[in-house]
Specification:
- It contains 1 helix and no strands.
- By secondary structure, the chain is an all-alpha fold.
- The chain is rod-shaped.
- The N and C termini lie far apart (67 Å).
Length: 43
């Protein structure tokens, strides 16, 4: 393709990917909840 179609789309993809990765780093990390199990596991 003489009009650099693939190159432009690759650049757009890389920009979107970089923005997404930056956004992911700023999200709060989820903590694992400690589920309380009953003493009697027969329940």
């Amino acid at each position: 393709m003489a009009d650099n179609y693939l190159e432009r789309h690759r650049e757009d993809y890389e920009l979107r990917k970089a923005q997404w990765l930056r956004k992911q780093k700023h999200l709060p990390k989820t903590t694992q909840r400690n589920i309380q199990r009953p003493d009697d596991e027969a329940l």
